[in-house]
Amino acid sequence: MANIFDQFDEPAPLQGPPLLRPFKVDEKRPNADGSYSTEISTTWQQPDGQWVNIPSLWMGPQGPKQFEAGDEDGINTAANNFEQINGPTFQRFPDLASAEQAAKLRSSEGGAAAPAGNVFDQFDEPATPASSAPGNNLESLMRGTEQAPPGPEISTAKDVGLSALSGIPRGLAETAMFPVTLSRMVEGGGNWLYNKAENGVRYAIGAEPLSDEELARREQPMGINGYLYDAQDAARGEMDKVLHKPQTTPGKFAGTITEFAAPGGLPSKGVRLAETGMGALRKYGSELVGNVVAPAVASEGAGQLAEGTPYEGLMRFLGAAFGNAGVAATRSYNAPGAAVRRATEGTTDAEWAAAKALQDNNTGIALSGPEAHAQARDGASKLLDLQRVVEGSTTGGNKTGPFYAQRPAQVDAAVGRQLDEIAPQSPDPYALGPRAAEAAGKVIDKTRQNINAQTRPLYDAAQPQQIPTAEFAPIAGDPRFVAGLKRLRENKELAPDYANMPDNSVGVVDAVTKDMAARGEALSTVANPLYGPELAGKSTAGAANARNIATQESREYAQALAEQEALRRTQLNPLEQGPVGSVAKATDTRTASEAILPRDPLAGAAPSNADAVKRLAAEDPETTAALVRQNLADRYSAAQTETQSGSRETAGAKFHKSVAGNDERSALLDAVLRALPNNQASVTMPELLDVLQATMRRQGPGSATEPNRMITSELSAASPAAAVFDIVKSVGGSIINKAGDATKRAALRDGLGTLADMFIAPNSIDLIRNARNNSGGRIAGTAAARTAAEAGGTLFDPQGAR
Length: 802
Fold this sequence. Notes:
Layout: E1 29-30, E2 36-37, E3 41-45, E4 51-55, E5 57-60, E6 63-66, H1 72-86, E7 92-93, H2 96-108, H3 156-176, H4 178-205, H5 212-219, H6 225-242, H7 249-264, H8 269-273, H9 277-305, H10 312-332, H11 335-343, H12 349-359, H13 369-376, H14 383-392, H15 394-405, H16 407-422, H17 432-462, H18 469-476, H19 479-490, H20 495-498, H21 506-523, H22 533-553, H23 555-577, H24 579-585, H25 589-596, H26 606-619, H27 621-639, H28 651-660, H29 663-675, H30 681-696, H31 705-717, H32 720-728, H33 734-760, H34 764-773, H35 776-791
Antiparallel strand pairs: 1-2, 3-4, 4-7, 5-6
Helix pairs in contact: 3-7, 4-6, 7-9, 7-35, 9-10, 9-35, 10-35, 11-34, 12-13, 12-34, 13-14, 13-30, 14-15, 14-31, 14-33, 15-33, 16-27, 16-30, 17-23, 17-24, 17-25, 17-27, 18-22, 19-21, 21-22, 22-23, 23-24, 24-25, 25-27, 26-27, 26-29, 27-28, 28-30, 29-30, 31-33, 32-33, 33-34
């Protein structure tokens, strides 16, 4: 089996085993005038005096080989070599006239394509010539089927249509057989390179080059490949018989274009990612021109230049390669794609996945690709610079404007759904604060009661114990104690509880000192009309002194006071001094809500606020949840305040800043939501906050002048057409300059429009990543693979014919 790469070798010398043979029945060589030849015969006299017709057109390993008509040595050597292997093949005639008559008869029957179709038919007796051949010519030219058999005329339009239809099944078949074609290309190229290398080594060491027999042996496919290659050749032969063969130049181009459509017309990932049908059609149409039409036209044009030569198949392949390479070079130089590749350099797979998840969020807020990419990379995205330039342009802004105009409504709906997960909106928000204060008061009272309950056994044991008279004397001599004792004994509600206890009992002393301490606290308050700091101090000091004496006389009383003090310090005081106490003191909803979810929380306060929410929810879960919702709703209402331009596009960003703008705010919000009885909002809130923070990444158009200038210049100049004009306009002339400027502006508008569509698409991250992956190497690799699929089969066409 011939190797396509053998055509690069020098022809082997005509000696030894024959390398040439006459044409077979189905072989022919096209001629420049549109005809084809199957046999060109010359007549020669042999040393024994007989005459013989010998072909000057032979078939060799590199395709058809034609000797000059007067090359007696070359023609006779080829015939002698062939007959050395195959025995007498060419018929001998006694005289020149008989030989020429036989040649004419064979020519009229089709030469090598004659019905007998066999070189051994020459051994038959020739028919009686109608007239003798002229003179003593030693050469006669026999062109088997010199002109193609006359057939019906076909119009160019019909030929184009039939050729286009024929190209479709041929292209589909070649696509299906591509693995076999690729195997042949790899195997043939490998053999050719290996043989060249080995012959180079042989030459260097003075050894003989590889013999023709060895080269022929190595060309034979190994294993099952031989059957596959034969089957492929048979399939192509059947297609040649059945399918229409183009008769006109337009028909040939049409057939090649539709043949290339099968492998080259497969939609790329960019087409499959297009969201709209019209967008997919535009993208696909552009790809068809670059992937099918351009390489097909280049392939057919190159093939026609080499038509009828052994290099026609190779030229068709190289033409397709050139066409695909040109398209690949243009695409790799695409300005929007190049800008995106540079802006996303260094993005990891994990960051791409995070950006994709952000864009596919469940909040209903549509993010642009640059926003999602920047959020996934914690702000480290140069795509934001591109987006800023796109938004600031007329072309890009007309597309991104409507996209961002929908954001306020999207954020409103998303935040509203999130708040509803916490609690429904209260019909009377003003009542929430007082109700929450009431619940907080109950929490504090229950804490006091719990402390008293824990120390009650000790108090009960200490109450009947009496303080000796000597030790009680200082207590009894304090006028504040005497006044308090009088109030106790005269109190109709409390007196019965102490009626059986003497004045020096621990129980009475404890009750009176509580009254003294309370009066001291009340009198120390400036707002009290009876404000008296001196009396307040003496009352407090007297109470402390009396208790100190009592604890020295009663171990149980001392222990009860110590435990109660510890419980107040660890349980009651934190409540009174913390969020619960603040809520208990609140007189309105705003103050109460700020107490449990403050805008500027203390560092590390999240656990205390969460505990407060749990305690309040235990008393009044509905009011507590509604209070949290009201707090967040009020903050979002403030964030919705319109800007000077009347825009509310940044409401989500402002809300995020208000509730989670730093670690403390974020931790506090999460802790409070988790503390609510229905903590579902704590599960869904992080995604909303992540999306809202992504909206904060968007930059305002018009900033960063220098990056704007650089990107604008890059998008307008980085196109082949613009580059050409830059070169040409240096010659001078206002027309060239204006045309160049117009081309740049058109390239800029196209680039800005392309980026705008990419950035606001629902699958923007997929589109951006696809553009990122379409590097020059990948584009070149795809073009090479497409060339092999489209035109690989041309390398194995019969040499010299297509």
